[in-house]
Each structure stands twice: as C-alpha cells, then as structure tokens.
C-alpha cells in the first residue's frame, strides 16, 4: 500500500485502466494487505501466463478456504461456514464437479435463448424510463443499476411481484453504510426468502434456474447448496454487469469511432463486447488460490499454504497477450482474456453476461444514436469500495 492510495495494490485503478504501479509490479510479487495485527502477506500474479497457470491448475492450487487448523488444504473439509455452502468458488474437484454439474441446467443454450426476449424487453423498458425523464439523465441510475438485477431475478425464478423487495434485501446486506447488526438481519431475511422459494420450486418447479435444477436432480442438490448458489449468482452478476454497463458506455463515448460496431451485425457486436470485457475487466481478482504443496512459480519459491492473488485487470493488459493491448479496439479478433476466470472455475454465467451486455449496448445506440456525455469536462466518479469496479454516476445527453 502507499500513502497516496491506501487500497490493496491488486484493486488500484486509474480511470479505465489498472494503476501504473499494479502493471509495474512484476509477474509474481509479494504484497501485504491490511496493517498491524490484521496484516496478511500474499503472492500477487499479474502476468497473463502466470494467472492462467494458477487458475487453471486445481491440482496444485485450491480455492477452498480452511476454517479449522486440522483441515488439509483443498481436502473435503470438516467445516464450511453456511455462507459458503453452494459457493462454487469455495469448492475443489470432485466436490466442485458434482455441484457445478447440477447447476448447469440453469445456464444451457436453450435457457439463454429463452432469456433473450426478456432481456431485450427489460433493457428497452429502462431506456423508455430514461427517455421520459429527459436529457440529461444518469445512465447508472436508470440502466446500469437496474437491468442486471431484473435479469438475474428472471434467471433465478423470483416472482415478479417480489423482485423490488428481493433486490433491496440483496443490496442491503452488503451495504457498508449500515450497521453490522442491520446487515446481518437483512442477510438472514434474504436467506430465509430464498429457502422459502426453493421449497415452493420443489413442489412445483418453474422455468427459472432453481426450477430447472430441482426438476432434473431433485434432492441431490440440497436446499443450502441451492440457496448459496443463488446468493453467489446475484452478487456476482449484479455488481459485475452494472460496472461493465457504466464503464462500457463511458469507454465507447470516449472512442465514438467504435460505436458503429453496435449498429452492425451480431458478430460485430459480439466481438465488441468481448473486447470491452477484456479492456475494462471489472472484477479485481477471483478467490485467492492456496498452494497445496511447495512449488516453483515464475521463478519464485511458493510454500504449501501460501496464498496467490490473481490480478485479472493486469493480466488482461499484459503486453505478451496481444499487440497494442492497452488500446481499446472493438474490431480486434477475440483474445484469450481471463475476465471470466480460467479452468474449472470459469464463470458459469459468461454466456448470459455477454448476451446481456450485447443487448444493452446495441439497444442503447439504436435508441439514442446521438448519445454523448452531458458534460465532458465533469470529473468521473468511480466506485472504489464495491466488489467490482464501476461508476457511481454517468450523466448522458441526447
């Protein structure tokens, strides 16, 4: 950490880019997070090849956290806190394989095709509301902070009349401005709602993710596993997509010559979305990997039990990844970025995220071809304390 920026090195950003000191840190380096009695030392990987090696090797690196000193690294475990049951990132194969296989019915190609018309409808509903409010308007408040939650509720199977309440509970138990007691109460209410919904789905499976899983696997997927996975889906999909929408629009407005990619064919839009995902990389890092044994990585001696943090934004700006990698180029052929992770923990919802972003950006410029920054000289307000990078406000005009 530095006096100028107290945040851990792996989450430092400057505008749309990773911080210079993060990019200059080296392929694999030691970092300290926290201070005093709370200080923890980790390895931090920034090179694309090293990040892929760590995330892709579940034999040597575990994602499962130990909550008991007797628990072997990456073992089946003797204790997992309730909040981590169903969180795929806290499971290693074969546990991970078993659970992920049961959850894939909610993310099939058929499921994504069924979701497409709804996503288009919710995006246009939000754009209608923004247009009615008049120019200028805050794109974050009207679109970026609204679309992802609505899409995720449809995916999971939350009844439409419950969705406003459901999202308030989801956001409330993460709100750092609330007391710990209040957040815990909201989190408990959120969990109880999910368990009640799962019980209903077991009696009469619907078309959402929970219904698809219980229809195919029944009691083989436990209530707690389904509850935990729903929490993971909501937390990962909401913040990440909100961040990508805001930053993506800002990036395109700063590079207006590239907006035509979303006015052309679907293949051009798909390529543009993939480049925006790589260039912006809103998640800072996945769950730290724990070395299962002594090993050598990028010339460094890693000890069994050492923690490795993988910086996804830095890895996706590694000059070894592609020529001119610091430049946004939506016509670039897709390159093997790690914004969705890598290996067995590659994001299960990657196809949904791409579909959602492609719909938002395509419909936005179809509806508002003259969209522009309301005040190009205004300082941009970035979210610095949320799990994924994003904007607090983006005033646009048309």
Task: Lay out the secondary structure.
Layout: E1 13-14, E2 17-18, H1 20-23, E3 28-33, E4 40-45, H2 48-56, E5 61-62, H3 95-103, H4 109-133, E6 137-138, H5 139-144, H6 147-156, H7 163-172, H8 180-203, H9 209-217, H10 223-254, H11 266-280, E7 289-291, E8 295-297, E9 300-302, E10 307-310, H12 312-315, H13 350-367, E11 372-373, E12 381-383, E13 390-393, E14 395-397
Parallel strand pairs: 4-10
Antiparallel strand pairs: 1-2, 3-4, 5-7, 6-14, 7-10, 8-9, 11-14, 12-13
Helix pairs in contact: 4-6, 4-13, 6-10, 7-8, 8-10, 10-13, 11-13
Describe this structure in words.
With 398 residues, this protein is of the alpha+beta class. It has a domain at 79-157 and 206-283 and 324-397: Cytochrome p450. The chain is 44% helix and 11% strand. Helix 4 packs antiparallel against helix 6 (147-156), helix 4 (109-133) runs parallel beside helix 13 (350-367) and helix 8 packs across helix 10. The two termini are 41 Å apart. The mean pLDDT is 90. Involved in the coupling of aromatic side chains of the heptapeptide of vancomycin. Pathway: Antibiotic biosynthesis; vancomycin biosynthesis. It holds the Pfam family p450.
């Amino acid at each position: 950490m530095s006096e100028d920026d107290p945040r851990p090195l792996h989450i430092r950003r400057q505008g749309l880019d990773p911080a210079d000191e993060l990019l200059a840190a080296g392929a694999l380096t030691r970092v300290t997070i926290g201070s005093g009695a709370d200080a923890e030392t980790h390895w931090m990987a920034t090179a694309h090849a090293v990040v892929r090696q760590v995330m892709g090797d579940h034999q040597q690196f575990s994602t499962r956290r130990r909550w008991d000193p007797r628990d072997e690294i990456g073992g089946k475990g003797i204790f997992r806190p309730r909040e981590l049951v169903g969180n795929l990132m806290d499971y290693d194969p074969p546990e991970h394989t078993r659970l992920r296989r049961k959850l894939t019915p909610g993310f099939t190609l058929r499921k994504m095709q069924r979701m497409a018309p709804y996503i288009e409808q919710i995006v246009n509903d939000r754009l209608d509301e923004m247009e009615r409010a008049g120019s200028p308007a805050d794109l974050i408040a009207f679109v970026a902070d609204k679309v992802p939650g609505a899409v995720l509720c449809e995916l999971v199977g939350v009844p439409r009349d419950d969705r406003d309440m459901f999202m308030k509970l989801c956001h409330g138990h993460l709100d750092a401005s609330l007391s710990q007691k209040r957040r815990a109460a909201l989190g408990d209410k959120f969990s109880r709602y999910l368990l009640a919904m799962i019980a209903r789905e077991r009696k009469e499976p619907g078309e959402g993710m929970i219904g698809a899983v219980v229809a195919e696997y029944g009691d083989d997927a436990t209530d707690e596993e389904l509850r935990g996975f729903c929490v993971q889906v909501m937390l990962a999909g909401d913040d990440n997509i909100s961040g990508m929408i805001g930053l993506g629009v800002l990036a395109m407005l700063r590079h207006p010559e590239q907006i035509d990619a979303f006015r052309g064919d679907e293949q051009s839009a798909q390529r543009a979305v993939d480049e925006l995902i790589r260039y912006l990389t809103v998640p800072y890092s996945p769950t730290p990997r724990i070395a299962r044994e002594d090993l050598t990585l990028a010339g460094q001696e890693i000890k069994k039990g050492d923690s490795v943090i993988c910086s996804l934004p830095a890895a996706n700006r590694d000059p070894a990844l592609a020529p001119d990698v610091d430049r946004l180029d939506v016509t670039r052929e897709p390159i093997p970025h790690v914004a969705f992770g890598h290996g067995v923990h590659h994001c299960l919802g990657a196809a949904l995220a791409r579909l959602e972003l492609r719909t938002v950006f395509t419909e936005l410029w179809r509806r508002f071809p003259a969209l522009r920054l309301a005040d190009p000289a205004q300082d941009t307000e970035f979210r610095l304390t949320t799990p994924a990078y994003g904007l607090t406000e983006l005033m646009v005009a048309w």
